[in-house]
Structures are given as C-alpha cells and as structure tokens.
C-alpha cells in the first residue's frame, strides 16, 4: 500500500472514531430533590444515548434515588450533589423514586 493510501486510511479511521464519539456523547440532565419531591418530576432524554443525571439533593434529609428499570440505586446525603450514569435506553417511560419517601417522591425519565 502506498504511503498516501495509508495516510488516507488513518485519517478515515480518526474521523470515524470522532463521529462515533460525537454520536455517543452523554446527555446531561439536571434533576433536584427538595421537600421530599423531585424537581422536575419528569425528565426527558433522547433514545440510545448514555445519560448523566446531574443530581442535587437540596432537601435537609438524605435520600436514596432508586429505579428498578434504570438499575439505579444511590444514596445522596442532605445538601450533596451526585452524578448518576444511566446507560443508553430505548424509548419508554422509566420510573424512579426516593426509597425513603416512596409516597411523595416519584419521578420518571421519558426517553424518546
Ligand atoms: Cu434501595
């Protein structure tokens, strides 16, 4: 193979990787928790894209963000922030809750 062809192939590989990285870039969603409720109660994300939930517990108590469908389980102390990684999801509605206050603290991630 000529060195020009090799250079072209290497460049092609680099651009392909860059394109994949752009397509797979995580989506960041802000979510907070206060007075035993999620704010907002419903968050949205695009399908097939890894998600980073930038979570803030503004409540005066610790809470446990939990979701069976999203496979999340994370204790967040009062007044603390947490970044929660969620795998790319198919379209659908995925519920989450605070395990310590399930009655009031219900939320959903809607993936479209
Ligand atoms: Cu739990």
Report what the structure shows.
With 112 residues, the protein is α+β, with helices and mostly antiparallel strands. It has a single domain, classed as Sandwich (Immunoglobulin-like), CATH 2.60.40.420. The chain is built from 1 helix and 9 strands, in the order αβββββββββ. The strands form 2 sheets. It has a 5-stranded mixed β-sheet, with no helix packed on it. The protein has a 4-stranded mixed β-sheet with strand order 2-1-4-7, with no helix packed on it. A hairpin with a 4-residue loop joins strand 5 (63-67) and strand 6. Residues 64, 66, 73, 99 line the site of copper (II) ion (CU).
Annotate the secondary structure layout.
Layout: H1 3-23, E1 27-34, E2 37-39, E3 42-45, E4 51-57, E5 63-67, E6 72-76, E7 81-86, E8 92-98, E9 106-111
Parallel strand pairs: 1-4, 3-9
Antiparallel strand pairs: 1-2, 4-7, 5-6, 5-8, 8-9
Bound molecules: copper (II) ion (CU).
Copper (II) ion binds next to strand 5.
Spatial strand order of the main sheet: 3-9-8-5-6
Give, in order, the helices and strands: HEEEEEEEEE
- Structural class, by secondary structure, is alpha+beta
Hey, roughly how much beta strand do the residues contain? over 45%
The CATH level-2 architecture is identified as Sandwich
Q: How far apart are the first and last residues' alpha carbons, in Å?
A: 45 Å
Q: What best-fitting shape do the alpha-carbon axes yield? A: elongated
Q: What is the typical, i.e. mean, pLDDT? A: 90
Q: Could you tell me which ligands this complex binds, including any ions or cofactors?
A: copper (II) ion
> What percent of the residues sit in helical stretches (DSSP H or I)?
10-25%
Supply the CATH class: Mainly Beta
Fourth-level CATH superfamily: Cupredoxins -  blue copper proteins
Q: Measured on Cα atoms, how large is the radius of gyration?
A: 19 Å
């Amino acid at each position: 193979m000529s060195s020009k062809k090799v250079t072209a192939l290497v460049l092609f590989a680099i651009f392909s990787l860059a394109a994949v990285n752009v397509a797979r870039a995580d989506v960041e969603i802000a979510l907070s928790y206060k007075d035993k409720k999620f704010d907002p109660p419903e968050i949205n994300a695009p399908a097939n894209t890894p998600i980073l939930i930038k979570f803030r517990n503004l409540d005066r108590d610790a809470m446990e963000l939990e979701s069976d469908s999203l496979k999340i389980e994370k204790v967040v102390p009062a007044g603390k922030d947490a970044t929660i990684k969620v795998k790319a999801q198919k379209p659908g509605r995925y519920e989450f809750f605070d395990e310590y206050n399930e009655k009031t603290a219900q939320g959903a991630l809607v993936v479209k």
